[in-house]
Amino acid sequence: MSASILRQSRRRRAPLRAEFPVSKIVQSWKGYIARFGNQLLGRSGDFWQRECFDRFIRNEEHYRNAVRYIEGNPVKARLAETPEQWQYSSARMKSVAEKSAPLQ
């Protein structure tokens, strides 16, 4: 449940109705993205992994490793040669920020 829906329900003091289960919303969203992504990439078939792997981040080192893993996905998929080259990557944003930061 999103925080905005929860805040609205608390303001109204009305119970939430399960007209649109989150699972159905995610299923619809993933279907749309899969069709669009496959079309964009000239592919067909499975687009998503079978399971979503949630993980509790234990400490700063674990967080950095998870970020590095995620930033490496476009390279692994051959969408970019380096994480910084992928236009949607946090690695790219960090690289731009570091270049524009004043030297101390």
Helical residues, percent:
55-70%
- What do the pLDDT scores average to? 80
Taken together, the total number of domains comes to 2
Provide the succession of SSEs.
HHHH
Number of H/I helices: 4
Cα(first) to Cα(last) distance is 45 Å
Unreliable runs, pLDDT <50, ≥5 residues? none
Structure description:
The chain is mostly helical. It has 2 domains: 23-51; 55-104, no CATH class. Helices cover 56% and strands 0% of the residues. The protein contains 4 helices and no strands. The mean pLDDT is 80.
Write the layout of secondary structure elements.
Layout: H1 3-12, H2 22-41, H3 60-76, H4 90-100
Care to give the gist of this entry?
By secondary structure, the chain is mainly α. The chain folds into 2 domains: 29 residues; 50 residues, no CATH class.
Defining traits:
104 residues; mainly alpha; 2 domains; single chain
